[in-house]
Amino acid sequence: EVQLVESGGGLVKPGGSLKLSCAASGFTFSSYAMSWVRQTPEKRLEWVATISSGGSYTYYPDSVKGRFTISRDNAKNTLYLQMSSLRSEDTAMYYCARWLLSYAMDYWGQGTSVTVSS
Amino acid sequence: DIQMTQSPASLSASVGETVTITCRASENIYSYLAWYQQKQGKSPQLLVYNAKTLAEGVPSRFSGSGSGTQFSLKINSLQPEDFGSYYCQHHYGTPYTFGGGTKLEIK
Question: How confident is the model at residue A89 (pLDDT cuts 50, 70, 90)?
Fold first, then answer.
């Protein structure tokens, strides 16, 4: 059974940093591209980052580029999202998700909540 | 960036009815479209990719259609477990963007 379990969320002040983790199991983690997607309090879904299966390629939207870094440790079956210079608009539930080839995200974790507030 | 516009934003229907949700892309995305279902308090689940291919385990009462800029998700004979929110998302290159969602409620 495919499982993705996020952790590391919490309350952080504006300008602060936070690192999220996503532990994967039930599939060959190193064979799949992975993403982070967030859902705002208004329930809007926003793609945050994608990393290739081997970790060589990363992709970000302009809204987080230069502030967020996606990485992975295939030996530990774990995906990460390092977030810095956090803003109130980064407040959201953060999900990790697996890519079905390049088609769509076929498995999602349960999410970890990030709140940016003073 | 490609903008995805869903309609309606909310929809009320009864068990057994057939409903259709539409999604419009701001430019041609060919068939690079996915649909997700999200139930209250849960994470999104993939329903359809490549505009019309059902994801594994998705009931056949769901169907996707369209190409280019106009897409639709049709649910035949609504079941109680089908109520929730639905989102479209294009996968025609980055940045991947989602529609604003359609909340399907019980009438």
Answer: very high
